[in-house]
Amino acid sequence: MSPESTPLPPVLLDVPLGEWPSMIGVSGAEIYRVRQLQDWFFQRRIKSFDEITVWPAALRRACAEKLTLRSLVPDGQVASAEDGTVRFTYKTRDGLLFPSVFLHPPQGGDPVDPDEDEVPGGRSSLCLSTQVGCAWGCSFCASGRVPFKRDLTQTEIVEQIFWAEELTGRRLQSILFMGMGEPLANYENVVRALQWIRGSEGLHYGLRHVTVSTTGLVPQIQQLSKGAPAVNLAISLHAADDETRKKIMPRSARWTIKEVLKAAWDYQVKTRGSRLTFEYVMLDGINDSQRNAQRLSNFLRHRKCWVNLIVYNPVPGLPFQPSTEEKVKKFSDILSERGIWTRVRRPLGKDIGAGCGQLSV
Ligand code: SAH
Predict the structure, then answer these.
(1) Which of 16, 24, 183, 194 is 20 to 30 A from residue 229's alpha carbon, by CA?
(2) Residue range 113-131, pLDDT digits in tens
(3) Measured from the CA of 177, which atom of ligand 1 is nearest?
């Protein structure tokens, strides 16, 4: 048989925890082996069963024959000369490439999470991808121009965390589902990945340290509030009226702004303690007028949410320009005057094509 036709062994994290005992072939008095595997995998970050020195050789060998622990291979990295951003490229087992962005803003600079505590040495975050390519076609985004290939598996999503920590030698404080792809269009795998990331049997990240960003898929937001670990929600709104939203986010605009907001408020009520943020990319002459700011503020007034005004990163070949400083300031002032928590985000990693919406590997 040629190597191509040999089926690849399953990856451990793709197997639900409840099936680990039968998968590794332990039961009864041996069941503590599962706990050991969890510990060696999540804490010690082993890459092969051979590393589990507390296991008998026969068990290690038997597991290695039917399971594999890693599914990605790092395929290059570029570090920003301007800030602490590193863009990693990974190769999947079927040979696809996708990016993931490590953020480590200089201390005293624009923090990724301004309301988080300071961490000695600075906070690190990972912007991870959930799909190879993106089928949502937001007209201003570079990822939207990369043809959709496939959803990433739960393992491929979680493994980006392992690799980022290993390759940078830093612990991540925040996990942001803001890389390539629309997370909620890959609902099942994203929820399973969240279970590993948030669960005490996995990486055990706190609610406030995990954020899922979406272009606003209403049914999936509703579903997320019922069956998934709670997370912070970031909604890419980007417009204050449905006509504009339809022009720049044609596919997501099948849900009206009102429907998206209703789903967001409901999510917030059901997952107490989660933070809700609206992302608003400032596009010159498209969505940045004072009238737009007033409309947006009417929607969000008296609600507990943040607005992130994102300074647009021009994408070669796309006809959009960032709004002027003055317009961004005016827009931000209008929201703030009306009591809406607003901050202006200057994308990090611009010089290496790792800023918001530049990801295109
Ligand atoms: N698909 C999800 C996750 C990606 S998050 C989502 O859209 O929410 C990436 C964020 O960067 C989104 O808010 C996206 O709209 C925004 N973005 C896209 N292109 C951009 C660009 N060129 N400059 C700045 N922000 C951009």
Answers:
(1) 24
(2) 555 556 667 789 999 999 9
(3) 3
Q: Which two tokens stand for residue 272?
A: 């107490």
Contact 227, 234 (CB under 8 A): no
Residue type, 131: Q
Q: What angle do CA 252, 96, 51 make, to 5 degrees?
A: 120
Q: How far away, in angstroms, is 185 Cα from ligand 1 center? A: 15
Determine which residue's CA is closest to atom 11 belonging to ligand 1: 356
138 touches ligand 1 (CB under 6 Å): yes
How far apart are the C-alpha atoms of 55 and 58, rounded to whole Å?
8
Give the span between the Cα atoms of 318 and 245, in whole angstroms.
17
Which is the CATH superfamily of the domain at 73-352? Aldolase class I (3.20.20.70)
d(CA 311, CA 344): 7
Contact 124, 171 (CB under 8 A): yes
Q: Which residue has the tokens 């030698």?
A: 169
317: left (phi over 0), alpha (psi -120 to 50) or beta: left
Query: Sign of torsion, CA 292 298 302 305?
Result: negative
Residue pLDDT, tens place only, 25-52? 999 989 999 999 999 999 999 999 999 9
Tokens matching residue 120: 């000695």
What is the pTM (predicted TM-score) of this model? 0.94
